Amino acid sequence: MQYLLLISADEDLAVTRMREGAFASFDTWITDLEQRGVLRAHVGLHESATATTVRLRDGEVLLTDGPFAEGREQVGGLAVVDCADLDEAVAIAAAHPAAAFGQVEVRPVRVS
C-alpha cells in the first residue's frame, strides 16, 4: 500500500537545521529507501511565502499570496512510499530527519 508522508515544521527552525547540515541526513534517508525499493517520490518545497492559494467561490477564481493557513509550522515537503503496512510507513516516517524537529503525517493514498 502507498502512503503519503507530509513533512512539516517551523520554517525558521527548518532553515536553521538545513544550514547546520541536515541535507546529509536527508540524502542518507533517501538512499536507504531507494535501495529498499519503497520510495516512489520525495520532494522538498520552497518556503511558504512563495505559495499561491487558489479558491473557487461562486464561479470566480480567487488567488491569495502565501499558504492556505498562516502559522509557524508549514508543509516543507512530501514523500510517497510503498509499504507492506502502516507499521512500516510509520517506521520510515520516524526515520525522516525532519521528524526530529517537526512532524511527519502518514496517510494512506487512495487509489481509484
UniProtKB/TrEMBL annotation:
InterPro entries: Dimeric_a/b-barrel, YCII. Pfam families: YCII. Transmembrane segments: none annotated. Residues 1-110 form the YCII-related domain. SUPFAM superfamilies: Dimeric alpha+beta barrel. Belongs to the YciI family. This is YCII-related domain-containing protein. It comes from Cellulomonas humilata. The lineage of its organism: Bacteria, Bacillati, Actinomycetota, Actinomycetes, Micrococcales.
